[in-house]
Design a protein that fits this description.
Blueprint (H helix, E strand, L loop, with lengths): L3 E7 L2 H9 L3 E9 L6 E2 L3 E3 L5 E15 L11 E7 L4 E4 L6 E4 L7 E5 L5 E9 L2 E4 L1 E5 L4 E15 L16 E5 L7 E7 L3 E3 L6 E4 L6 H4 E2 L2
């Protein structure tokens, strides 16, 4: 069984009612580590189903995908082909359609995507959140090149009234957000607080960092070392 994680967001009734009246959604993004440049985070999780205690749960069930969608702000990345994959495996893209097969000779601890063709694609990895597996990032995949991506257990959450779908390239935070590092969390669980007027809080814990509105998301979610 894949390892599971849970981030609980606690709110008071006034905040929950205010978010609902303001037509807010809860958005989540997930971090990766890679040496590849030119990538962007995409919306991983979105819901309007929140209450006094709201849980974001996910498991280490991974996928790898290829796409012909360009990586530009607000583009919705549509996967041409997607495959279940484990750490240490490699997706070999073998056709101009972006299709291929998964093999076991990848980089240990990472997900690799090898483009055997001479056609460029967009590619990335997905992580299962709740009952669905959604993309968390988008990178250029050039012909006869290999991208190596390591999923990192850092999650960025925010409430916003913007209406965008999962898989959408987002370059800047809609509003105040919270970057939560799940590494070393007891039972893989963390709890944070949100107030509609005072924003995010984790009682000063070092594993959570508040980010301002309009901050660039790539430096927070795409790590190079």
């Amino acid at each position: 069984m894949a390892t599971s994680y849970k981030l609980t967001i606690n709110m008071d009734e006034a905040t929950v009612n205010g978010l609902a009246a303001g037509n807010f959604s809860l958005y989540a993004f997930k971090a990766v580590q890679t040496k590849i440049g030119g990538g962007q985070p995409v919306v991983w999780f979105k819901t309007k189903d929140f209450s006094l205690s709201t849980e974001v749960t996910w498991s280490l069930d991974f996928g790898a995908y290829t796409s012909k969608t360009q990586i530009i702000a607000n583009a919705n990345i549509v996967a041409s082909a997607s495959y279940s994959i484990d750490l240490g495996q490699i997706l070999e893209v073998q056709q101009s359609t972006g299709t291929g097969g998964v093999k076991n000779n990848g980089t240990a601890g990472a997900i690799s995507i090898y483009n055997t063709t001479q056609q460029a694609f967009t590619c990335g990895i997905s992580v299962k959140a709740g009952n669905s597996s959604n993309a968390i990032c988008a990178f250029p995949l050039y012909g006869e090149n290999t991208n190596v991506i390591v999923p990192i257990e850092k999650v960025l959450v925010m409430f916003a009234s913007d209406e965008v779908n999962t898989g959408t390239v987002i370059e800047k935070a809609f509003t105040s957000s919270f970057l939560v590092d799940m590494t070393g969390a007891k039972d893989n669980k963390r709890q944070v607080k949100y107030d509609i007027n005072t924003s995010w809080d984790a009682d000063g814990a070092g594993w959570a960092t508040k980010a301002k509105p309009n901050v660039q998301l790539a430096p927070l979610l795409i790590l190079s070392n």
